[in-house]
Write a structure and sequence with these properties.
- The complex is a heterodimer of chains A (about 140) and B (about 90).
- The two termini of chain A are about 20 Å apart.
- Chain A has a seven-stranded mixed β-sheet with strand order 1-8-7-6-5-2-3.
- Chain A has one domain: 3-Layer(aba) Sandwich (Cytidine Deaminase, domain 2), CATH 3.40.140.10.
- Chain A is of the alpha/beta class.
- Chain A contains three helices and eight strands, in the order βαβββαβαβββ.
- Chain A is globular and about 40 Å long.
- With about 90 residues, chain B is α+β, with helices and mostly antiparallel strands.
- Chain B has a single domain, classed as Beta-grasp domain (Ubiquitin-like (UB roll), Roll), CATH 3.10.20.
- In chain B, strand 5 and strand 6 form a beta hairpin.
- Classes of the chains: A alpha/beta (about 140), B alpha+beta (about 90).
- At the A-B interface, strand 4 and helix 2 of A face strand 7 and strand 8 of B.
């Protein structure tokens, strides 16, 4: 399984994670229903404003789903950053992964690898994590 | 008081894949009890120790029930109830 994603969107997510460091950043990428294509980036406010936790504000979350519905889109990617640890889903990430059809993208902005940033993608279904390849297109 | 309940993908296994179902009840608590009687096991995904689970969001006519009295939130005929798992993690 591969996540195909544009360079522009990857760069925007990396930029967002730098800008919001030391807090975790988060957001979603929408795409046409059934296409699996992450086309429209929707950075979200981390309502937890925390270096160790993220949450979409419930009101923002509803607005996101309504917007997707209105545009015949679905959530293709849910992303967030880990500020101190590797770009791998934590136990909390796995426990709260509530969108089985989405690709979960993790970005790590930890000190040890700075200025590099890790960008990885996973499926999280029924508590099981499967990493997938990320193919960045022009 | 028949409300229209929108079911998120992750809970559709309980409703045989239905995205929208009907439920009766004058308040959210009664609606959840009614949902659980129609779709056994669904109640447990929404409640823990009798209270709404922290990381499940429920909206009545697009208002977060946390601001409408939680389980006591009034439900009227024709109301739209939307359930969305929180998008959160650490």
């Amino acid at each position: 399984m591969t996540l195909e994603i544009s360079r522009a969107i990857v760069d925007a997510i990396l930029e967002q994670s730098r800008a919001e460091y030391p807090d975790e950043c988060c957001g979603a990428i929408l795409g046409p229903i059934g296409s699996g294509k992450p086309e429209r980036l929707k950075p979200m406010i981390n309502a937890a404003h925390s270096p160790t936790f993220y949450e979409f504000d419930p009101k923002d979350l509803l607005a996101l789903y309504r917007e997707a519905d209105d545009n015949d889109e679905e959530i293709v990617v849910i992303y967030h950053s880990h500020t101190e640890t590797e770009a791998y889903p934590s136990r909390t990430d796995i426990a709260y992964a509530g969108e089985p059809g989405a690709h979960y993208v993790l970005v790590s902005t930890r000190e040890e690898i700075a200025p590099a940033i890790e960008f990885r993608s996973y499926r999280i279904i029924d508590g099981e994590v499967t990493e997938e390849e990320v193919s960045i297109t022009a | 008081m028949s409300a229209e309940v929108r079911i998120p993908t992750i809970l559709r296994p309980y409703t045989k894949d239905a995205k929208t179902v009907s439920a009766e009840g004058e308040n959210l608590s009664a609606v959840i009890t009614n949902l659980d009687s129609q779709y056994p096991g669904l109640g447990e995904r929404l409640l823990e120790n009798g209270a709404l689970r922290r990381f499940i969001n429920i909206y009545i006519n697009d208002e977060d029930v946390r601001f409408l009295g939680g389980l006591d939130a009034q439900v009227k005929a024709g109301d739209s109830v939307t359930i969305l798992p929180a998008v959160a993690g650490g």
